[in-house]
Design brief:
CATH topology of the largest domain: 2-enoyl-CoA Hydratase, Chain A, domain 1
Radius of gyration: 29 Å
CATH architecture of the largest domain: Alpha-Beta Complex
CATH superfamily of the largest domain: 2-enoyl-CoA Hydratase, Chain A, domain 1
Number of domains: 4
Helix content: 40-55%
Strand content: 5-15%
Bound molecules: 1,4-dihydronicotinamide adenine dinucleotide
Largest sheet: 8 strands, mixed
Number of helices: 29
Distance between the termini: 65 Å
Length: about 675
Amino acid sequence: MGSSRRAPTRPSAPSSSSAPGARSQQAGADPAVGAIVIVCAGRTFIAGADITEFGKPMKEPGLHEVLDLIESSSKPVVAAIHGTALGGGLEVALACHYRIGVKAARFGFPEVKLGLLPGAGGTQRLPRVVGVERALSMIVSGDPIGAEEALRHGLVDALVDGDLTGAGVAFAERVLDERRPLKKIRDLDDKLAAARGRPEVFADFRKSVARQTRGFRAPENCIKAVEAAVNLPFVEGLKRERELFLELMASPESKAQRYFFFAEREAAKIPDVPADTATKEVKKAAVLGAGTMGGGIAMNFANVGIPVTVVEIAKEALDRGLGVVRKNYEATASKGRLTAADVEKRMGLITGSTDYSAIAEADIVIEAVFEEMPIKKEVFAKIDKICKADAVLATNTSTLDVNEIAGATRRPESVIGMHFFSPANVMRLLEVVRGAKSSKPTVATAMAVGRRIAKVPVCVGVCYGFVGNRMLHQRGREAEKLILEGALPHQVDKVLVDFGFPMGPFAMGDLAGLDVGWRIRKGKGQKSAVADRICELGRFGQKTGSGYFRYEKGDRTPIPDPEVEKIIVDVATAQGITRRHIADEEILQRLLYPMVNEGAKILEEKIAIRASDIDVIWVYGYGWPVYRGGPMFWADQLGLKTIRDRMLEFRRATGDDLWTPAPLLDRLATAGQGFVQA
Ligand code: NAI
């Protein structure tokens, strides 16, 4: 602009989404201003909406008006980005004429994770910049991309080092000097044109995400919004985006996902163990037992760079266990998700030993030996003598009394349960089982370690099965009754798969191995007529090619098996049961209502701190579909009166006391309240 050139405005530091708009309005009117740079103070560029505002009337001005103002500014507007430009923040950046970022910046639209879509032009502008396929994958996955990738796809115009504000101003000056045009994304069309008239682009994308998005509502609306970007003029596309957004905002799926977002954060809080409770710094870990669970638990530590010692009774067991760990890492590497060097680095952090003195320096020990009380007690008495005075001693037991285990040591205050789920290197849930004597620092340390190894720790109390398995047991019992009364395993499983679970109880039994439960039943002198008969035939599930279902070689798809049907009918006849047709609705009620009822008892007994913790456990540990919030949230939505009254009907029909509603369920149902609000 030669001599008439004016300096770009000094940066604004927006404190809310309206600030960039107000500032650019001011700057637009100021003749001393030649260009505008939007840069944020603090840790990050605008990182999205304040989701506590969702569902309430929005404050003025709306983001749409702000973006309109920015995009239609007659002076160049440059977004200078650090930290994360997410959601509404990325929409602000896309309304600017140019974008620059630091190399560590990240860009994304996480709305889909809350059951929503970017509703301020994000679905219309992003495909115009990065192309339809990439926009679809960013918006539907919700995962952010890094700065290099953003540069490659034209989402940012330049990456800069050092002083971001200075770089933003320099970039704006260059735009002015070179008299570059104001690049309005709304006017771009070439990348959309590439997809226009090619509906297969969308059909292929839908197919590629069908499995991960099954049951969710938001992904389909995201795709429809991008289709609108391709097929409609910009302003019409914005209108369509708005409609699709509002539909999601009002949907039960998004309501559940937004609830769950807060539930997960809430689970980190333990009322009498404040956030500032001293925790032990964990520099070294140890795992006892290198079986199914021990190996996976050790991997969690190695994955985040914490050295871990694994102790076994015999060299063969140790070699076998560590061999499985290596195979797991190599499988990940073969999929391109780890480099060969990463595999070696992680294996290098895992040291095997058959000598317990190797754990003397560990800050935390997690025991995962056989599930037998005398063995657990012997192990804890032994480690009590070897471990540092301030080490945390954790047990991964799933059924034994943590207090009794703690009693085998002279320091029960340092003992706690850390109940991982199989496969322990994959499943996110960790039940932190607080013993009667576990000290607050022990609890706080177990929770902190859980988070550090990328788990979602939930604090629970001691009882048989803790929270998750105790509720699962209710479901399992009804599933067994249902097949004797007239349903078949594939019908029962299908009802839960249709509900949104990845699999039903019978396929799950086949996956876990039916012999495990059989051995436990035999040990306790218990029986399960159908399951025992199936096991007696050597049908242990997937590992033997058959269980409740049969399996083709190399395929995990459960196939209904007439042989199993015959066993079920024989057992029913022997027990004098007249089989009948059972409707899917009854199956669902009988599987899920007893779980909700058990959840109510768990709350009354204070085994769980809050109803939402139970929901976190079921979503992360058992595949409860997050778009249904979790069993307790789901029950609230259904209405506790509906559940209580149906349970009473079942009790009248069967005379079985198992259908007696828990006092808390009964009370809340009568008061017209829910668990979550209670
Ligand atoms: P596993 O039988 O696969 O492994 C146990 C390992 O411990 C064996 O390799 C054995 O050689 C070793 N071991 C036995 N006594 C030992 C001792 N004194 N010192 C060191 N190592 C010893 O059993 P799994 O399935 O890994 O279970 C371990 C623990 O984890 C049990 O308490 C179980 O209840 C619990 N758990 C199991 C889950 C599962 O899905 N398998 C899920 C959650 C918890």
